[in-house]
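Inputs:
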Amino acid sequence: MNNVTDPNLVPKFKFYTGEEVPCMGMGTFGSDRFTPEQVSEAVAGAIRAGYRLFDCAACYGNEDQIGQVFTKAFNEGVVERKELFIMTKVWNDMHEKVKESCRKSMIDLQCDYIDLFFIHWPFPNYHAPGCDADARNPDARPFSVDEFVATYGRCEELVEKGSIRYIGISNMTIPKLEAVLPRLKIKPAACEMELHPCFQQQELFDYLVAHDIQPIGFMPIGSPTRPERDMCPEDIADIQTPEMKAIAEAHGIHPAVVALKWAVQRGQIPIPFSIHEKEYVSNLESTTKDPLTEEEMKLIAALERNNRLVKGQVFLWEGAKDWHDLWDEDGKIVE
Ligand SMILES: NC(=O)c1ccc[n+]([C@@H]2O[C@H](COP(=O)([O-])OP(=O)(O)OC[C@H]3O[C@@H](n4cnc5c(N)ncnc54)[C@H](OP(=O)(O)O)[C@@H]3O)[C@@H](O)[C@H]2O)c1
């Protein structure tokens, strides 16, 4: 493979413990479009290309195949387990069975520990993978501080047992964090959240930085291949904006790579996905050279359009108005 990036040259961000992690990882959500085999093949290629951080999840339905790839890479001496930073997540229907969910992910990923284990969504509201955007689960309920703290406590037990090294939260809001943080024994190391030029979540981003919780940005390119059901007519395509195209042209790179450079320079860890070698190679390589100028960073900061792509409507409970209720936009937890 050409253009392998030396993992030692990839800049690092520091967790609150002082541990350093790569400033970019690879996403593994096949998005209804790519098979587990295509995704795991990309993971194999990405390890060879120099990626050391991988974002997995039980609900992506491909941990089994990715685990085979990890083991093969270890056996072939491409990389050692301790050089990888493997993240996975407990899905909504397993909040009461966190231990079982973690054990299944460990078996599937063929790992005897997980580096960072996320609570994927702060609600236990289950919806079947691939269901329609207007599907509703009659058992869905609003966010509960007590339930969340109990789920998080089950993750804390996994840290104490040595099954996981860090706990992460995902799809959270400031009001929810304000309510739960004082009640957690072990501080979350990272928060996975939607972040791309037209959706920057500046307030939440600043809150996390102030609390020494590392922001990890999902859909960093604006997820052009997201499932149909997550596409709305009002959505903006970040990488098609004239500003992103102009910056890309000035650097001789794809606008997708501009979005990733912006992410890393801003201070979040983007986890772009691609099954195409040329793309994932250039994505990682972008962290080591030709940074955006201050001017370009400012231009991208001004692209904020509050354009949330993952609205989460399938998690709504009876009585909820619409998807805005999931995001506590008035500064209070919507119950
Ligand atoms: N915690 C959560 O709730 C949550 C939610 C969503 C996602 N995630 C995580 O975030 C990861 C990333 O999100 P995502 O996969 O939805 O979106 P994304 O990374 O923003 O976009 C992925 C798409 O961008 C295109 N792309 C990638 N690199 C490119 C390049 N260099 N040049 C041109 N196009 C490029 C590819 O499309 P083509 O194939 O057309 O080239 C690829 O399918 C997921 O895989 C998952 O691990 C987490």
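The radius of gyration is 19 Å. Flag for discussion at group meeting.
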